[in-house]
Amino acid sequence: MSGQEFEGRSRRCPQFEAGCPPFLSHRRLCSEVPEQWVTESSPETSLLPLVRKLAVFCLEHSAESEACDMLMEIEKIDMMLELVSEDVHERVCLYLVRSVEGMWCGVWL
User: Fold this and answer.
1) CA separation for the pair 27, 55 (Å, rounded)
2) What are 31-83's pLDDT values in tens digits?
3) How many domains does the chain have?
4) Which of 18, 34, 44, 102 could be disulfide-bonded to 108 (CB atoms 3.0-4.6 Å)?
5) Which of 99, 51, 47 is CA-nearest to residue 79?
6) Average pLDDT taken over every residue of the chain
7) Which domain does 39 fall in, by range?
8) Helix, strand, coil shares, percent, the chain, to 5
9) pLDDT value, residue 23
10) CA–CA dist 92, 44 (Å, integer)
11) What does the angle CA 35 – CA 51 – CA 23 come to, to the nearest 5 degrees?
12) Could you tell me which residue, 104 or 64, shows the higher pLDDT?
């Protein structure tokens, strides 16, 4: 699946489908991005714009964990520095600290 096809799926997702809340499509896409990231020949070019849009949407709609998980899985967590706002930075930091604690102990909390 190319980046355009993948992004096209996001355009067909809940905000455009009747009866399905928008956050569900973005949650699903956030979980699918890492799988596509490893199969794309140039994910930086094809998927990075979608990743940025998804992360911004998640941060604006109290889904910080999905944004963080997606960015961590594709090893782009540094992108969070430019995306996080003053309104959500505390929740993002707390989630990241808890994630690191879980990895350090070998058990997800």
Assistant:
1) 10
2) 889 999 999 889 998 899 989 999 999 999 889 999 999 999 999 999 999 99
3) 1
4) 102
5) 51
6) 79
7) 3-105
8) 75, 0, 25
9) 55
10) 23
11) 90
12) 64
Tokens of 35: 């799988």
Q: What SS3 class is residue 26?
A: helix
What CA dihedral angle connects 109, 68, 22 and 60, to 10 degrees? 110
What is the separation of C-alpha 99 from the centre of its chain, rounded to a whole number of angstroms?
Answer: 15
CA distances from 108 to 33, 45, 104 (A): 21, 32, 9
Q: How far apart are CA 78 and CA 76, in angstroms?
A: 5
Q: What are the backbone angles phi and psi of residue 107, rounded to the nearest 5°?
A: -135, 130
Measured in whole angstroms, the distance separating CA 26 from the mean position of its chain's CA atoms is: 8
Amino acid at 23: F
**Token pair belonging to 14:** 């809940």
The alpha carbon torsion through 48, 51, 56, 57 (nearest 10 deg) reads 140
